Recover the amino acids of this structure.
């Protein structure tokens, strides 16, 4: 009997060790030993998939390429990559550059075969980064009052989103859509409660995951927002045991979802309040 498309996707997910609804990958740059974590968005359980005291375990930004199943992240100006699995094997891609000089990024995303990055010093802008060479080009210089640290693309729509810890006069800190082609930003939602420091972002299928840099003794939760309504719909426990200056996150869809459904996901297993 022929396996249905849905069943095939579920089978692929089971074989790979991932659940069918995709997962959030996070890390911070806490001192000492640090880990990059896989977070089950259905249960909130965090599993360390790489741990070290070295820089490659302490991401500032993070992005995922579903076409090649590659996780990218950076620490300062160095770009790393690994096949996405429950046990990462980091490889130093190399130094990132802009106009021939070294450059660092505080947020990364992936779209159309290229990385996107944002900076919080010098010229604050969205930059396009070649994932092979690390060479960057400047794409959209936004108002320097923004501080886009968290960055991710929702692959179901192709839209780019950023978290800003500050905002120009007349604006507020929170989640924004960043339209590179239109050279504009659109406010979506403010930060929850008294939060003022949320440094990483994962986005998928209309949900945005606001990620703090920890520690979890003072920032116990990550926040899940519905983009269409701009409302908080869920929380996830933070696994970060130490305080970081930077944090990184990206959403990794379930294996097979991109190939079998195009830009769609499986809706099963999502928790709600």
């Amino acid at each position: 009997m022929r396996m249905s498309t849905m069943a095939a996707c579920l089978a692929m997910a089971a074989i790979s060790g991932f659940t069918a609804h995709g997962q959030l990958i996070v890390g911070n740059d806490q001192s000492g030993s640090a880990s990059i974590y896989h977070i089950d968005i259905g249960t909130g359980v965090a599993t360390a998939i790489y741990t070290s005291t070295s820089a490659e375990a302490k991401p500032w930004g993070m992005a995922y390429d579903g076409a090649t199943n590659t996780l990218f992240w950076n620490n300062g100006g160095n770009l790393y990559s690994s096949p996405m699995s429950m046990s990462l094997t980091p490889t130093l891609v190399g130094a990132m550059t802009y106009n021939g000089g070294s450059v660092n990024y505080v947020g990364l995303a992936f779209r159309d075969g290229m990385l996107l990055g944002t900076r919080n010093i010098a010229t604050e802008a969205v930059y396009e980064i070649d994932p092979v060479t690390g060479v960057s080009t400047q794409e959209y210089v936004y108002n320097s009052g923004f501080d886009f640290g968290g960055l991710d693309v929702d692959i179901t729509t192709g839209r780019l989103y950023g978290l800003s810890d500050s905002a120009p006069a007349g604006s507020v800190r929170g989640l924004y859509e960043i339209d590179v082609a239109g050279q504009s930003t659109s406010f979506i939602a403010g930060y929850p409660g008294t939060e003022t420091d949320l440094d990483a972002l994962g986005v998928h299928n209309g949900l945005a995951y606001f990620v703090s840099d920890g520690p979890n003794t003072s920032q116990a939760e990550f926040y899940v927002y519905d983009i269409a309504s701009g409302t908080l719909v869920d929380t996830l426990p933070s696994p970060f045991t130490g305080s970081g200056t930077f944090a990184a996150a990206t959403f990794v869809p379930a294996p097979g979802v991109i190939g079998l459904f195009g830009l769609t996901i499986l809706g099963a297993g999502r928790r709600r309040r």
Remarks:
- Confidence is low (pLDDT under 50) at residues 1-20, 258-273.
- The two ends are 39 Å apart (CA to CA).
- The chain is about 5% helix and 45% strand.
